[in-house]
Amino acid sequence: MKTFSLLCLMFFFPSTCDSKFTFPLKIYTGNFNSSVDIDFSSLEKNESSSTNELSLATDPSGKVNFLQMVNNLQGDSGRGYYIEMLLGTPSQTLNILVDTGSSNFAVAGAPDPYITHFFNSKLSSSYHSSGMDVSVRYTQGNWVGKLGTDIVAIPKGPNGTITINVATILQSENFFLPRVNWQGILGLAYKMLARPDSSVEPFFDSLVRQTGIPDMFSLQMCGAGLSASSTSDPLGGGLVMGGIEPTLYKGSIWYTPIKEEWYYQVEVLKLEVGGQNLNLDCQEYNTDKAIVDSGTTLLRLPHNVFNAVVDAIIATSLIQQFSSGFWTGTTLACWTKGETQWSIFPKISIYLRGMNASQSFRITIMPQLYIQLVSGLDNSFECYRFGIASSTSGLVIGATVMEGFYVTFDRAQKKVGFAVSTCAEKSGSPLSEIGGPFLASDVSSNCAKTPAIQEPVLWIISYALMGLCAFILIILVILLLVPCRHGDDAGGGVTDESSLIHHRFK
Prior knowledge:
Layout (H helix, E strand, L loop, with lengths): L3 E6 L19 E6 L38 E4 L3 E8 L4 E8 L5 E4 L19 E10 L4 E12 L7 E13 L10 E4 L15 H9 L4 E6 L13 E7 L7 E9 L2 E2 L2 E2 L2 E6 L2 E2 L4 H4 L4 E3 L6 E4 H15 L6 H5 L4 E4 L11 E6 L5 E7 L1 H4 E4 L6 E6 L1 E4 L3 E3 L1 H4 L2 E6 L4 E7 L3 E2 L2 E2 L1 E8 L15 H27 L18 H5 L2
Parallel strand pairs: 5-10, 6-9, 18-26, 19-25
Antiparallel strand pairs: 1-2, 3-4, 3-12, 4-5, 4-8, 6-10, 7-8, 8-9, 11-12, 11-27, 13-28, 14-15, 16-17, 16-21, 20-24, 21-22, 22-31, 23-24, 27-28, 29-30
């Protein structure tokens, strides 16, 4: 899954270095959490008055009040963002992690050392068990449980209750972590990722079908520049279900197409560090897949890309003597309070393909988003972790990046949108930028890898191969057991009595 739990092994850094800057760093040992002529019109956001964009503070049908969803999230990038939900009859209140990188709605169904309470299905008269076992494995962590249905309401969400598939988690490993304040997970991706199979309707599909709200949602995550392990959760932002809330972003929304409906897979064209192109083949960025995932703590990059980014940051910021453990997530960097030197770290830009394949735009994060404060360690120092990690499962645009933007997931029109978030500021300075449009002629026409074959197709292929193998096996058995007769042995040929087959089974 997602939320990181890392061991911090702090080294003594010399107070002065051979490089241009001085780093008053301190050692800390402890634990913290972390998981040409072109028509550019199709690339840019339609204005609020556009007929094909839902951008109203209140839905006239009365099903959706976007304003009440503005502050319905709590949490931070270190422990995830969660929303309050009421499950069962009578209702039981639970905080549920918002995750665009999975598709199951699951809640704790038994006690766990790291959670304060759980959903007791025996106390809900509206709960119905399907009798099916279900298990889900994430990048970090996994759980097993039972599948069933129940009714759910969201106090700061669409009006009314809906019936949904819900998994009760009975056993888990590295899923619930210390100091998290949520008791379940809300998977908002497509049904292809649902477990045990894609016949399990995900939560958001049920919400759209039963309430009639538009098939889209948007996220604002407001932990930018805040501690990733503070003892109290800050106001975390909003999950707007059914549309877009214009008070949550500045400027225009820039859209990139959803390449495949499983994860929210997008196409990354290139990365820049400090304005310098990494000059990697664009398929390197899309190795396995490139996705937008609110449940992933960090910006995760394929191994080669990660190494190139670290090398570029070191070269650009002149911090060659920084501990290698900082880049790999085992060491924190600490400065005397008030002396953090943000200006020496570069911006990082991700270029995404536009709705028109010949165009692109870039989303840029400032160092305050990827050099992340970790509090509660020492009153005299401010310590930071690196908000980027190496990945073996593709590029993941996680909370490190998403905290800088208002991100829209328009499932109906198969596109993900980015706009500068109104809460992505620190001391009055913006922590994110969006630029474009740019030509995409300098990259491949198709940077994204071919997605994995969908599950139904795999089933068809598997059954077809099994049938073919069974047919061939039957023929072989017949040939082996039925003697071959060729008439009299006039020519001294091979007879039934002398054949290898006959004597093999004699």
